[in-house]
Write a structure and sequence with these properties.
Distance between the termini: 15 Å
Shape: globular
Number of strands: 0
Strand content: under 5%
Oligomer: single chain
Radius of gyration: 12 Å
Length: 74
């Protein structure tokens, strides 16, 4: 993903979401209520990890248990 595309995603995030998406090392735990953007944070983090060259897409697996989240992840 080109940096300009990634930048367009990141400007949509609030400060807490941005911090979770761009955390440099280790796993990130996101605890938040319904409708707060958890799925967005997860999908944007995946995009960020790939865009920053930290992982290849083939090295990441993402799962969800709801149709709504699956649609957002697509």
């Amino acid at each position: 993903m080109a940096n300009d595309q990634l930048d367009k995603l990141l400007v949509k995030l609030n400060p807490a979401q941005y911090a979770a998406v761009t955390a440099e090392t280790g796993p990130v735990l996101v605890l938040a209520g319904a409708g707060s953007g958890k799925t967005r944070v997860l999908t944007y983090r995946i995009a960020w990890l790939i865009g920053e060259g930290k992982f290849f897409a083939s090295q990441i697996m993402a799962m969800t248990f709801t149709n709504k989240a699956a649609g957002e992840m697509k």
